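re: ur question from earlier - yeah i can do the single chain one, its not a big deal. heres the input i used so u can compare w yours
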Amino acid sequence: MKKPIQYLIGGASVIILIAGLKIGADLINQILMALLLAICISPLPEWLSKKGWPGGLALTVSFILILAGGFLTVLLLANSIGGLTDSLPAYEQKLTEFINAFNAFAQSKNLNISELISKVNIAPEKIVGLAQSLAGGVTNIISSSFIIIMLIVFMVIEMVGYEAETRKGKRNKNSMHDWFLSLGGDLRKYITITALKGVITGVMNFICLLIMGVDFAFLWAFFSFFANFIPNLGFILSCAPPALIALITLGPTQALLVIFFFWLINFIVENVIGPIFMKESLNISLLNSFLSLLIWGWILGLPGAILGIPLTMVVMKIHSEVKG
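and the output i got, formated as tokens:
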């Protein structure tokens, strides 16, 4: 077959695959999130077994931790989302008052910014509408959380059981198994480092927001944890909502303090704490991470932005195998 025809067939196949991913994004996101978390959680029962725990007890304790942690997080998130949804009308009114007051202050200083505001199209109702859309997206994730948690449990059972049977000689290893282990190790390293930094960032952000009295501190801290997985833009996305809430409820000074402390925490985690854990480079360039954000975010939505780098690592692994 001629090269141009091969390229055309390959390009058409990629387009069909992308279309299928976009159509089935809701289901695919649940499976991918569960698989990603299962790969990271599966070493826990293995670690407990190495410490002398019986295999069944190690699995049981791992599942209890998964279920308890998952449902507690869902409960706290559901409570925060409910409170945020109820508060949105009041926030819209306060934001309108703030914009009007700021416009009046600018006019008193002979600054005409009303035209600039209209060009930028900053309208309180649009900002609140965006917040409602984001809250709806989080609500959809919460509604599917039970499926994701159960998928994680079943996947961990399968992974741990396969490893145990392989060690006992009941199953033979094959090239696909070795490939999956290699891929799982790379993913686990990336997720472990990123998740650890995300936990530290989220906890510090939560303490900061709690001390300052910003509404829904747990929600913004949890969001900052996941935003840590979004390359390049994660910090901005995590900082904007609490800063806006602080602006309309506590004032400009507190909003600036939120931005400053978020930046300071992010700087410490990325440049001081991160290098301590990241002994080796993950070989992910800045361009690859940004392209991962754009492409997978377009295909799968917000979960695609979070899963972008792991999915890109999978594609690169497949490409290297085919090329080799």
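The mean pLDDT is 76. not sure if urs matches, ping me
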